[in-house]
Amino acid sequence: MRMRLRELVMFACVLCLAFVFTTGCAKKQVLQEGEAAVEKAAGAEVKPATEPGLTPEELAAREKALKEQALKEQQERERLAGEKAAAEKAAAEAAARAGEVLVDINFEFDQSSLTPESREILQKHAAWLAAHSGYSLVIEGHCDDLGTTEYNLALGERRAAEAMRFLVALGIDRSRIKTISYGEEMPLDPAETEEARAKNRRAHFVVTPK
After folding, report:
1. Which part of the chain is the OmpA-like domain (predicted)?
2. Is there a contact between 132 and 98 (Cβ–Cβ < 8 Å)?
3. What is the pLDDT of residue 120?
4. What global pTM score does this model have?
């Protein structure tokens, strides 16, 4: 019985040694294969990405063409931006000059009819507008502080409309002109004197590019 037990123990030890030896060999083989794969990848030549059917010369030529096209587009954007800035500057300068040319006209107390002096001024305005067809005109009607707010708003509108009718009669396209009334809300001179009130009974002209 003891001999039988000893044989079983020895057999188990042999099996364990065989298992350890086999496992070690397998691990060594896996490590060797992994190292070989890494060495192969490291030694492989890195080739640039190419497209099927295109030679390196053709790829270089296409890349050059794309860069040239991008440069042309950038230059075109810069040109358009420069032209826009120049046009805006010219428009601002023209508007500033118009502010010097298109002076206000004044009205008598509680009146919307044009005075002889106002008609002469409007004739000059019409000449300027005819020579600068790229601009529109806003005519603002203003009043003094006498009377109610509602009455002065209506009076300011009549004054602006009268100036517009005169300009249209001189050949200015009606579609280029708009009118608005501010009544007594935007006095040129806020003093409560007759001289100040005479200044505030007016039509003011504002030009803007179309």
Report:
1. 94-210
2. yes
3. 96
4. 0.58
